[in-house]
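Model it.
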Amino acid sequence: MSGRALLMWDDAVSGYDFGPSHPMDPVRLALTMGLVRAYGLDRAVDVVAAPAAGDSTLRLVHQADYVEAVRRLSLDPGSADGSYGLGTADDPAFAGMHEASALIAGQSVGAAEAVWRGEAAHAVNFAGGLHHAMPGAASGFCIYNDAALAIARLLELGAERVAYIDVDVHHGDGVQAAFWEDPRVLTVSLHEHPRTLFPGTGWAEETGAGAGEGGAVNVPLPAGTGDEGWLRAFHAVVPELVADFRPQVLVTQHGADTHFEDPLAHLAVSLDAQRAVQAACHDLAHEYADGGRWLALGGGGYAVVDVVPRSWAHLVGIAAHAPVDPQSAVPASWRDEVYARTRQPGPVRMTDGRTAQWQPWDAGYDPADRLDQAVLATRKAVFPLRGLLA
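Modeled.
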């Protein structure tokens, strides 16, 4: 297996653009790539572009009539009427929608293929992680579900165990739905509680069905959860499950919208805690996933200047085994780029100044604490189904 990491990038992914009033501004992708270059991380990875996903690949997850609808509305976005989830406030149709969406999906699928074949140990597609798209409908800013497509391609190539860890603030509902009854895929999602945030799913009791029972794991966190609680929940659930499942490939989704500055959600996580979870996922891949097979994806994140580029530049650095020092000053050249593109000042350091500490679960829990109640509900719902102690 090659020790190099891949960074999937094609400038055309910025064509995934719902319009100027939409919170999912593609400038977040351009600024992330700009920060990667400013730190020289593009020299520590192999920057490659995969072709767009074709129809046969898209149909590994998506229904043929839905793919055709996306293609048709790409040519005539004004005719979108909400059918298939297209033409809504969350997912307005736009010219070139099919091409841009298929290109992002192609990057995740190509990355999965490279990791499976041993051409790279790790691969990153921060334009991906569009985890809400369903087989027959767009949802939550997501047209094609690149994460599910990458996993489906790994299964097609012969993978027997793929673990998917999703730490976006929103429930990874589309990926869960795609593999709800498939025992080859373990999906774990940590997210804000469905009572207070879209998509209203991801309860601890959602555990899969049929042969896949126990293969869906959900940790719904109370609104307001900060670094200590978020990290405590992650480490109380994820490592034990990954160690038991022993995936051949680890796929992770790193939506940056858990951050306390994100305008669309209600967690209070810092950049430093996000970086700590990225590093933990990297370590889990090396320990359990056939020598380090790791595909890391982006996801949500709507603080497009202050948070998203820094978070995902850290992710690229970790995957490249060239981590960015959190205390380092952000390069002035990148801050100039931020101002030129957005007329906003950029952040000055790669840290929020937090310590990213937590109390381990095995040190004991407080039954009156809402965070501990959430973790315990998840462990009780899932761990016995997998033969583990709750």
